Amino acid sequence: MLFSENFKIALRALRANKMRSVLTMLGIVIGVATVVALLSIGQGATASITSSIQNNGSNLLTISPGRQQGGGAGLGQSRQTSYLYYSDYQLIQRSLTENISALAPSYQSSYTVKYGSESFSVNVSGVVEDHQEANSYEVAQGRFITDGDNKSQSLVAVLGSETATDLFGGLAPIGKTISINGVKFDVVGVLESKGSSGLGGSADDVIFIPLDTGYNKLFGATATYNDKKIVNRISVSVTTTEAMDTVSAQIEFLLRRAHKLASTDQLDFNVLSQSDLLSTLTSVTQILTTFLGAIAGISLLVGGIGIMNIMLVSVTERTKEIGLRKAVGATKNQILTQFLIETMTLSVLGGLIGILLGVGIALVFSATGLIASVITVNSILLAFFFALLIGVFFGLYPAFRAANLHPMVALRYE
To answer: Rounded distance, CA 20 to CA 18, Å?
Structure first.
C-alpha cells in the first residue's frame, strides 16, 4: 500500500473521531507551543542583555560592593555588609594614571520626580563628567554633567530619553525646571536612547545630577557610612583590551589594602569586566531557558503517552478491520505502517498547531514591551521534530500490537 493511501486512511480514521483526535493532540499542541514560546522569550532576553552590555563599551570595568554574608535572621537571608566609598575612587584616581581613559563614581537611588501634573518614581544617579565617556552615553539635546557643575554644586539635571518623554511628552525639556524629591533642578540635557537593560529595566529611565549636588541636597544620610561618602559603583574605562587584566589587578590590590583586607580575606568588592558580566548573565539565561524547555518537554512526553493510550484503544476498536485486511493479503509491515502513519499524522498536526500558538504567544509577549522575543527557525524545527519523534516513539507499541494480531483471532474478536 502506498504512503498516500495510508495517509488517507489515517485522515479518515481521525475524522471519524474528531473530538477524540483533538483531545489526543492537545498534549502535543501545548508542549510544542510552550517550547517555541519559551525558547523565543529566552533567546530574546539573551539578545537584549548582550546588546545592553555591549552598548556600555567593551573596555569597561565596573567596581561594586560585593560581599554578602548570612544574617542573623535565619537561613537563606542575607544582607549587604560591604561598602564602596568615594575615597576609594579618589585613591584609584591618585594611584593609577596609566591605561585609564575615564574614571567615574556614581550613587543611585529612587526618588519622585515632578513636572506640572506629571509625577512618578525614577532612578536618580549622582555622577561626574567622566560618567558619560565611561558608560558610552550620547547626548541628544543640550549637554552632560560637567566638572564645573560638581564644583559649584549646580542644581542641574540630564534626563534619559524615556524619562524625558514621560515628563514632557512632545515639549522641549531643555531649560525647564523639574522637582526631584522637592528640590528644583534645571534640565540641561537629554540623552540618546540606550534601550532595555534586558532584565525588565530600562537604561533610559534615569536622571543624572552632579554627584556633589546629590550628596549635599538629595541623598542625605543614606549616602554615608561612618562619616564617609558611599558610592554604588565606580566605572573604569580602560584604554585597551590588553590592559584590562592589568588594571583590574591593580584596582584589587589598591582596594584590598584600603579596606584593610589580608591576603587570605574574601574581597568585599567586585571588579567585573563587560565580558565577565556578559558571560555570567548569558549563562544564567541559558540555564533558565534550558530548565523551562525541559518542563515544556515534559508536556510533550505527557502528550505522547496520551497518543499511545488512544491508539491502543483504536487498535482494539478496529481489531476486526485489521483481521479482514490480513485475510485479504495485507502484510505485517503494511498494518504497522498504517498505524504508524496515523500516529505521526496526529503528532504533525498537533506540532503545526502548537508552532502557530507558540509564535503567537511570543509575539504577544513582545507586544507587552518587557522583552523582545526572538523567534528562530531552529527553535521551531527543534520543537516540530521533537513532537514528531514523540509521535513515532509512542506510536510504535500500538502499531506493533496491531501488526502482530493473528487474522483468525482478529476476525473472531467481539
So the answer is: 5
State phi, psi for 263 to the nearest 5 degrees: -65, -25
360-405 residue pLDDT tens: 988 888 887 777 788 888 888 888 888 888 888 888 888 888 888 8
Nearest to 195 by CA among 374, 371, 373: 371
33-46 pLDDT, tens digit per residue, is 888 888 888 888 77
Question: What's at 249, amino acid-wise?
Answer: A
Q: Which amino acid is at 91?
A: L
Band (77; pLDDT cuts 50, 70, 90): very low
Q: Please, which pLDDT band fits residue 71 given cuts at 50, 70 and 90?
A: very low
Tell me the C-alpha distance between 308 and 305, whole Å.
5
By DSSP bridging, strand 156-159 and strand 183-191 are parallel
Q: CB neighbours of 49 closer than 8 A, spacing ≥ 6?
A: 197, 198, 199, 278, 281, 282, 285
- Report how far residue 328's alpha carbon sits from residue 309's, in angstroms, rounded to the nearest whole number: 28
Residue 227 burial (CB < 10 Å; 0-12/13-18/19+)? exposed
- DSSP-assigned letter for residue 264: T
Who contacts 7 (Cβ-Cβ below 8 Å, separation ≥6)? 341, 345
Beta bridge partners of 68: 80
Q: How far apart are CA 25 and CA 18, in angstroms?
A: 11
Q: Report pLDDT for 2.
A: 61
Residue with cell 569597561: 60
Cβ 353 vs Cβ 25: under 8 Å = yes
From the list 304, 311, 300, the residue with the least C-alpha distance to 13 is 311
Q: Dihedral sign, CA of 248, 254, 259, 261?
A: positive
Q: Whole-angstrom Cα distance, residue 225 to residue 295?
A: 46
Cα–Cα dist 81/66, whole Å: 9
* Amino acid occupying residue 332: K
Count, in order, helices (H) and strands (E) of the chain.
13, 15
CA distances (Å), 181 to each of 61, 112, 115, 214, 289, in order? 31, 5, 12, 11, 40
Does residue 56 carry a pLDDT above 70? Answer: no
Angstrom distance (rounded) from CA 108 to CA 122: 10
Contacts of 96 (CB under 8 A, 6+ apart): 247, 250, 251, 254
- 3-state class of 390 per DSSP? helix
Band (79; pLDDT cuts 50, 70, 90): very low
Q: Which residue's entry shows cell 501488526?
A: 403
Judge contact between 341 and 311, C-beta under 8 A.
Answer: no
